Each structure stands twice: as structure tokens, then as C-alpha cells.
Amino acid sequence: MRLLLFILMFSACALQRYHTFTPIQKEAEQALIKEVGYETRAIKRNAMLQYLINWYGTPYAFGKCEKSGIDCSCFCKRLYETVYQKKLPRTVREIYSQCDKIAVRKLHEGDLVFFKIKGDVPDHMGIYLQSGYFVHASTSKGVVISSLENPYYKKYFYGSGRV
Predict the structure, then answer these.
(1) Domain contains 48
(2) Is residue 4 domain-resident?
(3) Per residue in 94-123, is it b (16+ CB within 10 Å) or e — as a string?
(4) Which residue among 38, 49, 122, 159 is least crowded, i.e. fewest CB within 10 A of its CB?
């Protein structure tokens, strides 16, 4: 009986220690640790980071809002509803108009970052993580982690906000 109890306890500990991440999710976790600077322990406790890991690599699809394809505003909208229990409008422009604008130096995890790639109004967005990194649904790579220091995003950065 004691042997069975020991085996069950050992198995439970082993299950808690090892993730059942897919390779793409493991890639997301590694990016959060190596590039962004999160500790493994913090990732496991952070609902937003767990949400990000689950959606990492999801393909971009304009106007879609599903695991099979999602656009940037819907990714942010769904994350906010799931993690923060806050409802956001559906489009980048509407979200930008409703948030309180903040300076980049005051960004905290969960704040929004906006980009103006085409036209005169923001048309792309993401969610700030830390250390200059943000998560977003990229048109070319799907849900990814990028740096605000990347020349492309630096060129098109429009502003940041908090809801």
C-alpha cells in the first residue's frame, strides 16, 4: 500500500513539473524566457502568458476570430475578455479611440500598443509584455512575440494605451 501511495505521489509531482506543450507552444515559452526575460515560474502563474502560449502560432486571418485564424484586434479582444474580464470593441480604430493614451516608458504588461501601417489611423495592435516586447497577430507569421525595437515596428509605431 505504501509503495502504491509513493508511486501515485511521485507521478503527480512528475505531471506537475512537465508541460504537455506542443512544439510551437514550447517555442513560445522559450521566447518568453530567453527574449522577453520572464522566469519559468512566472509564466506558469500568469494567465495572460498561458493564453499567449496557447494561441502562439495561430495563423493570421483578416476578420476571423477563431483558433484556425485570427486578426490582431480579435486576438487582443479575446485575450482581454478571457484574462482580464474586460470587453473591448472589435476594431483597432475603436479600441484605440476608447483607451487612455500612455507614454511608451509607462507601459506595463497588458497595455496596448498600436501601429499605423497603412493610412492615417492605427490599423494594427498588440499587447505589451515587458522589456520592449509585445504579442500580436502578425499578417505574415500569425500570433507571435515581437520587439518594439524591431525597425519595422519602430517605423510604424503609433501609440500606446490602457483600458
Answers:
(1) yes
(2) no
(3) ebbeebeebeeeebeebbbbbbbeeeeebb
(4) 159
pLDDT tops 80 at residue 6: no
Provide the whole-model pTM: 0.85
Compute the distance between CA of residue 78 and CA of residue 140 in angstroms, rounded to an integer.
20
Parent domain of 40: 22-162
Choose, from 72, 74, 76, 99, the residue flagged as catalytic: 72
Number of domains in the chain: 1
Q: Which CATH number goes with the domain that contains 75?
A: 3.90.1720.10
Residue 108 bears catalytic tag: no
Cell numbers describing residue 136: 500580436
In the annotation, is 72 catalytic? yes
Question: Are residues 99 and 112 in contact, defined by beta-carbon separation less than 8 angstroms?
Answer: yes
Catalytic (active site) residue 136:
yes
